[in-house]
Amino acid sequence: MTAKQINYQKLQTELDEIMGRLQSEDIDVDEALKHYERGLVIVKELEEYLAGAENRVRELKTKFSSKQ
Description:
By secondary structure, the protein is mainly α. It has a single domain (3-65), classed as Helix Hairpins (Orthogonal Bundle), CATH 1.10.287. The protein has helices at residues 3-22, 29-65.
């Protein structure tokens, strides 16, 4: 497992925890805003990671389809 995979999994777990906290009925507004903001940062990082993975798959497909 690479560092990026571990980082991706760690971020996904953190996002899941934030979502759970935000769905709690007893969360303070200030705390909710803090978690919401952190969640947005995590979503952006996850999207960037997935876009990079998608580009890598395209590169591999191109590389290996041209060898046939």
